[in-house]
């Protein structure tokens, strides 16, 4: 993937919007990122998050494996893109810091990589700023929401770090299946990618209704029972979210099967409940 030089400025796409008010601090209801933190063995969660995670594990005993596979997919995708010349990453719905966060993954291949972390939960952002102290000047933390892409694209912390006239990877993992159709995820992804230069990429994972069907149904139902909206989608519906971008080989596949570094066993395939893909803007 070649670097793009000499790109002219993009025309304005929209007026600067009024951002939504900051998300309220709520520790009495489960939050997806804190539930994932518990499932991955972290310590940054509350009683409501643990209760939701325990309900989820009763519905899907393999969910911890799924969370780890998502982190592994992210690592493979970011390394691939950094190796292909992408030097800018916007990690939307980043969640709580993982053992190997996105900026460390990218800089293990491209030391000059710049990474903006975006989330709308104040607890997550405060933890990220404390725990990711190694990020340096090439890292930013942005309070933003995928559902308000115009506000995100005009956020000063983002625009001072990320040059949308150059290729950027929009990373949206573990998020889209928590946005029902009425939240218009396809529209918001299109707004983001329309603002990006040619050569930019979308990295996504998405819960699937047509992989491990019974596990998928049980997992989505457990999220909803916990008060967390969840809408898994089938392959064609996920492809529609990819806003006319060109999938990179091997395309939209079960998450563990995207450029795996080791064997994908039959047992792993039988418990896959999410797709993964990287797609490029021409």
For the structure shown, list the relevant keywords:
globular, 282 residues, 11 helices
Structural class call reads alpha/beta
Distance between the termini: 11 Å
Order of helices and strands: HHHEHEHEHHEHEHHEEHE
Tell me the strand percentage band. Answer: 5-15%
Shape: globular
Poorly predicted spans: 2-20
Mean pLDDT: 89
Please give the largest β-sheet.
8 strands, mixed
Helix content: 25-40%
Number of helices: 11
* Rg: 18 Å
Strand element count: 8
What does this structure look like?
With about 280 residues, the chain is of the alpha/beta class. It is built from 11 helices and 8 strands. The chain has helices at about 30-40, 45-60, 65-85, 100-105, 120-130, 150-155, 155-160, 185-195, 215-225, 235-240, 265-270, and strands spanning about 90, 115-120, 140-145, 170, 200-205, 245, 255, 275-280. Strands 1, 2, 3, 4, 5, 6, 7 and 8 form an 8-stranded mixed beta sheet that branches. Helix 1 (about 30-40) crosses helix 2 (about 45-60). The termini are close together. Residues about 1-20 have low confidence and may be disordered.
């Amino acid at each position: 993937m070649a670097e793009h030089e000499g790109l002219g400025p993009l025309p304005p796409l929209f007026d600067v919007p009024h951002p939504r008010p900051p998300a309220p601090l709520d520790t009495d209801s489960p939050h997806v990122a804190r539930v994932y933190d518990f499932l991955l063995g972290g310590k940054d969660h509350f009683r409501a998050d643990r209760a939701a995670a325990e309900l989820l594990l009763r519905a899907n005993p393999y969910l911890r494996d799924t969370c780890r596979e998502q982190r592994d997919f992210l690592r493979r995708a970011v390394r691939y893109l950094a190796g292909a010349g992408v030097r800018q990453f916007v990690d939307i719905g980043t969640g709580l810091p993982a053992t190997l966060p996105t900026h460390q993954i990218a800089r293990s291949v491209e030391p000059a990589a710049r990474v903006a972390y975006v989330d709308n939960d104040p607890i997550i952002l405060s933890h990220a700023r404390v725990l990711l102290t190694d990020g340096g000047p090439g890292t930013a933390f942005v309070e933003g929401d995928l559902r308000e892409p115009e506000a995100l694209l005009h956020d000063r912390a983002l625009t001072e770090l990320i040059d949308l006239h150059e290729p950027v990877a929009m990373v949206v993992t573990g998020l889209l299946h928590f946005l029902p159709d009425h939240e218009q995820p396809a529209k918001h992804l299109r707004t983001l990618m329309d603002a990006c230069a040619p050569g930019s990429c979308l990295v996504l994972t998405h819960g699937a209704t047509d992989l491990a069907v019974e596990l998928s149904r049980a997992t989505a139902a457990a999220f909803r029972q916990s008060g967390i909206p969840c809408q898994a989608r089938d392959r064609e519906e996920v492809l529609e979210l990819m806003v006319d971008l060109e999938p990179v080989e091997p395309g939209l596949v079960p998450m563990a099967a995207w450029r795996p570094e080791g064997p994908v066993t039959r047992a792993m395939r039988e418990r896959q409940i999410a797709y993964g893909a990287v797609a490029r803007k021409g």
